[in-house]
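Data card: per-record layout.
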Amino acid sequence: MRTADLITARLHRAILLTATLAFAVAPASDCADQTGWPEYLEQARAAQESGRLSDAEKMFRLAVDGAEKAKADAKDVAAAMNGLAAVYARQGRPDLAARMYEKSLGNLERALGQANPGLIQTMLDLGSIYESEGNHGAAATLYNRVFAINEKNFGPGHPEVARSLNRLASVRVQQGKYAQAEEHFKRAISIMEGAPAASREELATMLEEYADLLKRTNRPAEATQAEERARAARSASRQQTAKPVESDQSAWKVQLKIQKQSSTENQVDEAQKVLNQARSSGAPEKALAPVFSTLAEVYYRQSRYA
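The structure for this 306-residue chain is written out next.
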């Protein structure tokens, strides 16, 4: 897979994931009584989902303005800002998208601190915009932060750490820093090879990117080996996808529903950990839709942005 295609795919995924997370955040009821900005936010989400981007932009702008004037919680303001940024990106206006994501990230940093997991998705979204614009140095800075946060929260051998390293490796390739890219690719691949079968498809993609790097550095024999490993991983992924996963999936849903029943501050983080365990434990991403939905309810009930 070509690097340009990977960047485009990541940008599209980031836009969709931002829209999903924005939908999952609950508005602050006190602010709703004062300004009505939550109604604008709901209208913006509806317009965005139906592809009416001009209407979505207008409503998101009103929601951002109203939330800021009402001094709403920073996480709620960030939800509106990220929704607007996603619309800008879909409209082909990356400069406006970047500025809005930057503003959103600044708000979240002031509210949550510099190393909170709640910053990760906004940093990934912003990094994708930077990559699409060729600002690889800025993207690398963000991905380094994501890597550090994931390693601290999940441990050095977690698939989320591998995903962070893979993003960083891809940017290093674009910068021509091949030695650093290879180091990151090798560690990411090693982590994924030790992960459960659900990560085989991701492993295959990482191996293909690594093979591209080996070709760039005139190592065709090693590139061929990496491609063979990628084919084997993808084959294993197809076999795994064909297996029933309902029992495991139901177990994850039960765990997340238990988390949802609590209103204590740390339960959202616990729910996120359960989700990450689920993603790396045997079921394909498609089968995890109910788990993502349940996690969204957690954020909604506890007014958390992540």
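Known properties of this structure: The mean pLDDT is 79. DSSP finds 15 helices and no strands in the chain.

See the next section for split statistics.
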